[in-house]
Amino acid sequence: MDAFLRGTKRKSASTAQESAQDEDEDSTEVKLAMLASLYSNISQEVLLDALLDNSGSVDQAASSLLDVQMESPKKSRAMTIGSQTSLRSFASKSSSIEGSGTAKKPKLLSKKGTTLYLYDPKDIADHTPCSIIHNFLPQEEANDLLREMLEESKSFERVTFKLFDNVVQSPHTSSFYVATDTEVNTQKHEYFYYGGRLEDVRRITPQLLRVRPKVKEAVNKEIQTRIKTRYPDGKKLRYQCPDEWMPNAAFVNCYNGPHENVGYHSDHLTYLGPRAVIGSLSLGVAREFRVRRIVPKGNNNKLTEDGDAQGQISIHLPHNSLLIMHADMQEEWKHSIAPAQAIDPHPVAGNRRINITYRDYKSNFHPKFTPRCKCDLPAILRTVQRKKDNQGRYFWMCHRGNVPGKENCSFFQWADFDDDGIPSWGRERYKGAV
Ligand SMILES: O=C(O)CCC(=O)C(=O)O
Ligand SMILES: [Fe+2]
């Protein structure tokens, strides 16, 4: 943090570990998160512009944004929720396959500095690693779930974590749900998030349970459609698990009012494994889900050459829509819920939006199996995203440093998965079972 604020350059990385940590700390997303915590009412797009204009210096970007904030909301671009950019103005002649590292690279329609607004399910599937189902649940079922979650959300809390030397709080509230009391206990005592334990883990509620089989069926169907229609040779991606997707855990987020948001990030793969799929149900106020492809840095590491190089895409998420983040998402794209200038209140939820991300926690990635760092904590699974060298490689590292007052140890280990994303200890487990 200090290094960013003073604009000091860190030493060039010499080992794989340093390179990976450098990758982690240097990311535009961390800088964006820092700016967003200072200016929660300015859009991510404007924050990113400010970073680019100031060659990646958070310090200078922060001062320049002071003026933006004083000037007028004009530059913060009020968005009409639900608007869609005409695709004709972005028309591309190439018919591309949305893909992974191994797939043919799609010709992206969004351009540097622009946002492409998408609503139509076909456009979303064509141009992002996501698919969407509108009006997913019968109306009454959606409202029952919404009402239940609004009640639950009264006791949701902000997550506190450390961003370098600063302690920050998530700009929205959340909680975590699993199926049984035993799992609640395991989650509280054996799993680690942001280098520490989760205190608020809850037993799945009646409405979450009622909806779960429908999410499971729809997501599995969407996975198969995506494989057949968009992946090279109609085959699953390398490291993607071929097993049926089983939603056994759910993070629930509440965004109370237009300014609550979540900054650009990729979801943690530590307990989901590589090429994870996530089913994300939106209820209440419609908000914008922004996605952008991670563009690796060239040799000179200049932010101006890689940040926002291909623009961002905004997906409109209305009440009762199920968004599926497919296997080509977390490793190669970032996503966020942008702060809004204005929202349309929802008849049941008022200014609040509830989001439920159903996830498949894999038994092979239980912390009793995954590598432990020198602090004796289960390590976190990351991907090299922004360095051209080793891009896409997975590694395990310490994440103790996310806890206020603690530092990361030097633990680093490249991860080894077979083509189905099974780690070496998982292969041993299967052998043992036969
Ligand atoms: O609220 C959303 O739609 C996204 C939430 C999210 O990205 C997350 O929980 O990781
Ligand atoms: Fe996420």
Automatic annotation (TrEMBL):
Coiled coil: none annotated. It comes from the Eukaryota. Gene3D superfamilies: Alpha-ketoglutarate-dependent dioxygenase AlkB-like (2.60.120.590). Keywords: Metal-binding, Zinc, Zinc-finger. Residues 246-362 form the Fe2OG dioxygenase domain. The keyword Amino-acid biosynthesis does not apply. Residues 373-418 form the GRF-type domain. Residues 1-27 are annotated as: Disordered. Residues 27-70 form the CUE domain. Pfam families: 2OG-FeII_Oxy_2, Zn_ribbon_GRF. GO terms for biological process: DNA alkylation repair. One of its GO terms (molecular function) is dioxygenase activity. InterPro entries: AlkB-like (IPR027450), AlkB-like_sf (IPR037151), ALKBH3 (IPR032854), CUE (IPR003892), Oxoglu/Fe-dep_dioxygenase_dom (IPR005123), Znf_GRF (IPR010666). This is Fe2OG dioxygenase domain-containing protein. It comes from Xylaria multiplex.
